[in-house]
């Protein structure tokens, strides 16, 4: 059976009537930018995360960029983050003229290893961007303790973690600001680009609201050099429909992951590790094995979707050669890049499909 890595058509078919009605209302309203749907979504997401403010922006990348800008990150500053993440996490640091400083990961969770952070702090360090990769929050207690001691901002890259939590505290509510993506593949995905920053710091929230709208909160009067980065009404309307189902969808992803874990028991595969106290929402279900490429070949032959996130760590990207970092600099990130593989885990998968996928994986490593 052919099984895609993600089936957005199946999701749409389940909610099409409600989606179509929401879109129709936006079209009939004639209100397309920063209208009532955006305001409602901002409040709903902030409430979900346990934050005071939500600010809708044009993408998850812009959420990170504006959050850093609002915290005053500038040329010459250093920001510590992971080398094993989507490029945007480091890109936004560089876009502001600051320097990304990479910290290796914990190979079990693929998130920053908090034990390595303190040695990287210099007088130029201004912030830490932990990434809740694949949908799990870990290490935030240690990261926040260090940040408070060293007077550093903490900007959460929670783009893959809407609804995840640790110790009953939601992703996005730990640091000074939390950043989310509504890219279509996310657990809460729109029908185009979109993003949001959540924060409980009123000063940061007000600054981001200005920055997203050309540096103004009064039309034609500008107090900042800003951006054009607004979440539009159409995406907000779609996301409001989907947000009501996010908890159910995340729970189904967790159930699918549990079934995979059961089927892969004693297989020799390195399976996702859900840290005690954490609620992993499995944006991706990621396995690890030295013969990863053989597994990919077998899945491709069987028309089963899979993907490598991420094949080349950021410190080895061409654009960052100027940092002078060589292979071996971050061994856990490099190991993850060589051996990890994401399998389908979306809520609409059947148990029969999961069993079929697992069978093909097991056959390839036998």
What structural class do the secondary elements suggest?
alpha/beta
The low-confidence parts are none
Number of domains: 2
CATH class of the largest domain: Alpha Beta
Q: Describe the main β-sheet briefly.
A: 7 strands, mixed
Please characterize this protein's 3D structure.
It contains eleven helices and twelve strands. The protein has two domains: 8-243, Aspartate Aminotransferase, domain 2, CATH 3.40.640; 246-365, Aspartate Aminotransferase, domain 1, CATH 3.90.1150. α5 links the parallel β4 and β5 (153-157). It is an alpha/beta fold and 366 residues long. A seven-stranded mixed β-sheet has the order 1-9-8-5-4-2-3, sandwiched between helices. It has helices at 8-29, 36-49, 60-70, 88-95, 140-150, 202-211, 233-243, 246-263, 292-301, 331-339, 351-365; strands at residues 53-57, 78-81, 99-102, 125-129, 153-157, 165-166, 169-170, 177-181, 195-199, 278-279, 285-288, 340-343. The model has no long low-confidence stretch (mean pLDDT 98).
